[in-house]
Design brief:
Belongs to the thioesterase family. It is built from eight helices and six strands, in the order αβαβαβαβαααββα. The longest helix has 19 residues. It has one domain: Alpha/Beta hydrolase fold, catalytic domain (Rossmann fold, 3-Layer(aba) Sandwich), CATH 3.40.50.
């Protein structure tokens, strides 16, 4: 395990861990991560436009908009020191897309790309193409994932339908765009950095066995972990400990080469 001294020698600062959230959400699930990841890791949660501190900004619904918004931040981080990415569900597709774009730009590679609760782009899911379904068809799909709140907030005219459901629909549009771009040889294909894949033991959408198919999106062997929980396990205590340990372990064996 790397000490703070080893990290400082390798990159001049702790590993910067950029975290991206699931559809329809801000970055609240990463609130406890800074205390849980362990030493020499700085957690940087990256909210997409239209939520949290960026709630007044226009939401992005395609790959071009996503890259225009977040890629400059990651390019700067890549030049400043060691970094890694963790994305959960939609956030995993975002993290994969950013990693591919960083490679295309010739930026220094991340220590690793970590993907949670997300099927690989070539595997169809019930939510692919669901963004424009009427409420009576979309809501049961979301209910199967445990995404619907209980009580009146999810009823017609309720707060959840007015404030969260529009964000979720736009995020599903973004996910569709990112999956399509990943399948295009010009913008997709395997990443060259190490890939870690995390599954929830009881996830109804991305079951642990199904995540082995991320192998075709990585140049080297992937490392798979199963943690306790359903689809929304990003707020668990186990996950940040595993991701933080990966940061320290990979610093200990040396950072991956730049994609230049």
């Amino acid at each position: 395990m790397a000490s703070r001294t080893e990290v400082e020698k390798a990159g001049g600062r702790p590993v910067r861990l950029h975290c991206l959230a699931h559809a329809g959400a801000g970055v609240a699930s990463y609130r406890r991560w800074p205390a849980a990841v362990g030493p020499v890791v700085d957690v940087v949660a990256l909210p997409l436009p239209g939520r949290d501190s960026r709630r007044r900004e226009t939401r992005v619904t395609d790959r071009a908009g996503l890259l225009a918004d977040l890629l400059p931040t990651l390019l700067k981080a890549a030049e400043e020191g060691l970094y890694a990415l963790y994305g959960h569900s939609l956030g995993a597709l975002v993290a994969y897309t950013l990693t591919r774009a960083l490679e295309d730009a010739g930026a220094p590679a991340p220590l690793f790309l970590a993907l949670g609760a997300c099927l690989p782009p070539h595997v169809a899911t019930a939510l692919v193409g669901a963004a424009d379904l009427p409420d009576e068809e979309l809501l049961p799909l979301l209910g199967d994932l445990g995404s619907l709140p209980r009580g009146a907030t999810a009823s017609p005219g309720g707060l959840w339908r007015r404030s969260v459901l529009p964000v979720l629909r736009d995020d599903l549009r973004l996910a569709r765009s990112l999956r399509e771009a990943a399948l295009d040889p010009a913008t997709g294909g395997p990443v060259r950095c190490p890939v870690l894949v995390f599954a929830g033991s009881d996830d109804p959408l991305a079951a642990p066995n199904s995540l082995q198919h991320w192998q075709q999106w990585a140049s080297g062997p992937i490392v798979r972990h199963t943690v306790a929980g359903d689809h929304f396990f990003a707020g668990s205590a186990q996950l940040p400990r595993l991701v933080g340990r990966a940061c320290r372990d990979l610093v200990g064996v040396g950072a991956p080469e730049s994609s230049r």
